[in-house]
Write a structure and sequence with these properties.
This protein is an all-alpha fold. It has a single domain (about 5-190), classed as Serine Threonine Protein Phosphatase 5, Tetratricopeptide repeat (Alpha Horseshoe), CATH 1.25.40. Helix content is about 65%, strand content about 0%. Helix 3 (about 35-50) packs across helix 4. About 30% of the residues are buried. The mean pLDDT is about 95.
Length: about 200
């Protein structure tokens, strides 16, 4: 068994259709639950620390390992270090790995539902060009979706569009300001009072 397999098994569950995987794992992926954060820390905290310290680079030689390393840098810190600056500590390396892997075509070996988590790295970037790349990638996934999967991938595309609007307007995600010690502008403070302003 490859060293990244337990993480992928936990994150995606057994092989199934995109809609089945999403239905079974959506709460893990996008929910905020203390027990899930604790489980992530207990099972994979050591690997997250290693990845954040620049290790595990050899994982990126294979598509599945590349994806798992990206999860360790982008998704799991947001759980393990929730509401702290360290939640975003892996973003720069994850973005570099995504760029390198896409240039090599590593995403082509991944099921579309797994490619979503490559797109999410771009969606998390406080950079308009990355937001545009995320939208492009989500459109590709939607174009390739089966009829039964279209609603799922339309939802991912819609959420990406909402992220892009925020970055186009502010150049950053205002909801991160307090966590990262950044001052909010008056416009950002007003925006944060609106429903759906915090991702």
């Amino acid at each position: 068994m490859q060293p990244w397999q337990p993480l992928l098994d936990w994150w995606f569950g057994p092989e199934a259709s995109a809609t089945q995987v999403a239905a079974a794992r959506q709460r893990l992926w996008f929910g905020k639950k203390d027990s899930q954060d604790v489980e992530a820390r207990e099972r994979f905290g050591g690997l997250v620390d290693e990845a954040l310290d620049g290790g595990l680079g050899a994982w990126a030689e294979q598509s599945d390992g590349w994806l798992a390393l990206i999860l360790l840098l982008d998704q799991l810190p947001r759980m393990i270090f929730r509401d702290s600056p360290r939640a975003y500590a892996g973003d720069a390396r994850a973005q570099a790995l995504v760029a390198e892997g896409l240039a090599r075509g590593l995403e082509r070996d991944l099921a579309p539902i797994r490619q979503v988590f490559i797109c999410l790295v771009l969606e998390h970037a406080e950079d308009l060009a990355s937001q545009e790349r995320a939208l492009y990638r989500y459109r590709l996934l939607l174009d390739g979706a089966t009829a039964s999967e279209r609603v799922l991938f339309e939802g991912f595309l819609d959420f990406s569009e909402r992220h892009r609007v925020v970055i186009a307007r502010f150049g950053r995600f205002p909801h991160r300001n307090a966590i990262l010690g950044r001052a909010c502008s008056a416009e950002e403070s007003a925006f944060l009072l609106e429903p759906g302003s915090r991702f």
